[in-house]
C-alpha cells in the first residue's frame, strides 16, 4: 500500500473543508485535501442565470465575520466576481399576529447586513485559490477507512498519514463515526423546501422572513448577471406531512401556495424553479476532538435553517481552529497536540451550543398557538423593534462585528 506523509489531512472539500485546508496551507503545514468531487467539475464556469432554473437552490447568507475570513484566505474577491447579492435590510414578522422587526444596515453604519451566495460559487472561488497553493488535492477520492495511528485509507488503496485528520465531511460524517465521537440529536419532523423564484416586485435588497406555526418561510434576495433584483432563493420549513403535500403540488398550485404564504409581500410569484426538500435534524457532537481528529462544520453540528447560520457557524470553527494551529506551529507543537485541540473545542463548543439553543427557542416560540403566548411574542417583537440600541447590538453580534 502506497502512503504519503502530511501534517494534516482534511476530509471533505465543501464550503468548510476547502477553507480550513487553504488556511492551513497558508500557514506552512503540509496539507492534503480529500474530496469526492473533481477540480474540473468544481471549477467549471457557471451558466448565466437567465431564469429561475439557472440558480443553484442551496445558498448561504455569509456574515461579515465569515466574509473577513474569506478575505484573509484571499478568496472573497473571487466570490464577488461570481453571482452574489449583498442585502441591506431584513424584515421578520409573525404570520399569525402583528409583531414585526426590521433591521437596516444604515442603522449600523455598514454597507450591508451580509451577502447571499450560491454555495457552489463559494466552493468554486476557494478551489481557484487552492489550485495555486501548496495544498495537495486528492480529487475524486473517497475515504475507505480511518484508524488512529494508521492514517486515512483511500478508495484507490493509498494511505495518507498525518498527525491530524480534520473531518469536514458533513452531517453524516464518517470521520466522526470512525473516531467514536457520539452525538446528541433529534428530528424536527420537518422538511425544508428550497427553490428559486422570480417575483413581480423587486426584493429591494431585503431578506424577508415570516414565522408561522408550521415553520418559517424565508425569501433571500438574489441577483443575476444583469443585476435583475426580482429573484429570490426560498427556504420554506414545514412540518413533514405539509412539506410532502406541498412537494406533491404541480408548479402552478405550488406557486399560488407560496404567493399566499408570503402574503404577496413581493407581489405575484411569477415563476418557480425545480423544488428540493430535505429533512431537518438537529445534531451536535458531544466532543469535537479525539486523538488525532478534529471536526468542523456540519460534521460537528447541524442547526435549523431558520436563521441561515449553518455556514457561518462552520466558518467560525475554521477561524478558531486556524488560530489555534497557527499558535501551535509558532510554538513548535504538533497540530494534534491534545492541549491545542482541547482549546479549539472549548472556544467553539459554547458559542455553537448557544446559537443552537437560541434557534431551538425561536422555533418552539413560534410553533405554539396559545393566545397568551401569541400575544407575548407579538408584543415582544414590537417592543424589540422600538429599542434600537438593543436591536442593533444583537444585529452586530449576529454579523460577527462585536468587539
From TrEMBL:
Pfam families assigned to the protein according to its UniProt record, in alphabetical order: FAD_binding_3
Signal peptide span: none
Gene Ontology molecular functions: monooxygenase activity
Superkingdom assignment: Bacteria
Location of the FAD-binding domain: 6-349
Cofactor: FAD
Keyword annotations: FAD, Flavoprotein, Monooxygenase, Oxidoreductase
SUPFAM superfamilies recorded: FAD/NAD(P)-binding domain
Pathway assignment: Cofactor biosynthesis; ubiquinone biosynthesis
Similarity comment: family membership: Belongs to the UbiH/COQ6 family.
Protein name: FAD-dependent monooxygenase
Lineage: Bacteria, Pseudomonadati, Pseudomonadota, Gammaproteobacteria, Pseudomonadales
Amino acid at each position: 500500500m502506497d502512503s504519503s506523509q502530511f501534517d494534516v489531512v482534511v476530509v471533505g472539500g465543501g464550503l468548510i473543508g476547502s477553507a480550513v485546508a487553504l488556511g492551513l496551507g497558508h500557514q506552512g503545514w503540509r496539507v492534503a485535501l480529500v474530496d469526492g468531487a473533481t477540480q474540473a467539475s468544481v471549477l467549471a464556469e457557471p451558466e448565466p442565470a437567465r431564469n429561475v432554473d439557472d440558480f443553484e437552490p442551496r445558498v448561504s447568507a455569509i456574515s461579515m465575520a465569515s466574509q473577513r475570513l474569506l478575505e484573509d484566505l484571499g478568496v472573497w474577491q473571487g466570490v464577488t466576481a461570481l453571482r452574489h447579492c449583498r442585502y441591506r435590510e431584513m424584515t421578520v414578522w409573525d404570520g399569525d399576529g402583528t409583531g414585526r422587526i426590521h433591521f437596516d444596515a444604515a442603522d449600523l453604519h455598514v454597507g450591508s447586513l451580509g451577502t447571499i451566495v450560491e454555495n457552489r460559487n463559494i466552493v468554486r472561488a476557494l478551489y481557484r485559490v487552492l489550485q495555486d497553493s501548496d495544498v495537495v488535492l486528492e480529487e475524486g477520492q473517497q475515504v475507505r477507512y480511518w484508524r488512529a495511528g494508521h492514517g486515512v485509507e483511500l478508495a484507490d488503496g493509498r494511505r495518507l498519514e498525518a498527525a491530524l485528520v480534520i473531518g469536514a465531511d458533513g452531517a453524516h460524517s464518517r470521520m466522526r463515526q470512525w473516531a467514536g465521537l457520539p452525538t446528541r440529536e433529534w428530528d424536527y419532523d420537518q422538511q425544508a423546501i428550497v427553490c428559486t423564484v422570480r417575483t413581480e416586485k423587486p426584493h429591494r435588497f431585503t431578506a424577508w422572513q415570516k414565522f408561522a406555526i408550521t415553520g418559517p418561510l424565508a425569501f433571500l434576495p438574489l441577483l443575476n448577471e444583469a443585476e435583475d433584483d426580482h429573484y429570490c432563493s426560498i427556504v420554506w420549513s414545514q412540518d413533514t406531512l405539509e412539506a410532502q403535500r406541498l412537494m406533491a403540488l404541480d408548479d402552478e398550485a405550488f406557486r399560488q401556495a407560496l404567493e399566499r404564504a408570503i402574503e404577496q409581500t413581493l407581489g405575484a410569484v411569477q415563476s418557480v424553479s425545480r423544488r428540493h426538500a430535505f429533512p431537518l435534524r438537529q445534531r451536535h457532537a458531544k466532543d469535537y476532538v479525539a486523538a488525532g481528529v478534529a471536526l468542523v462544520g456540519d460534521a460537528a453540528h447541524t442547526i435549523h435553517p431558520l436563521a441561515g447560520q449553518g455556514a457561518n457557524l462552520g466558518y467560525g470553527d475554521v477561524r478558531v481552529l486556524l488560530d489555534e494551529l497557527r499558535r501551535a506551529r509558532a510554538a513548535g507543537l504538533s497540530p494534534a497536540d491534545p492541549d491545542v485541540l482541547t482549546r479549539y473545542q472549548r472556544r467553539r463548543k459554547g458559542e455553537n451550543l448557544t446559537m443552537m439553543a437560541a434557534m431551538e427557542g425561536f422555533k418552539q416560540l413560534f410553533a405554539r398557538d396559545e393566545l397568551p403566548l401569541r400575544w407575548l411574542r407579538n408584543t415582544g417583537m414590537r417592543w424589540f423593534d422600538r429599542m434600537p440600541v438593543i436591536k442593533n447590538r444583537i444585529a452586530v453580534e449576529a454579523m460577527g462585528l462585536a468587539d
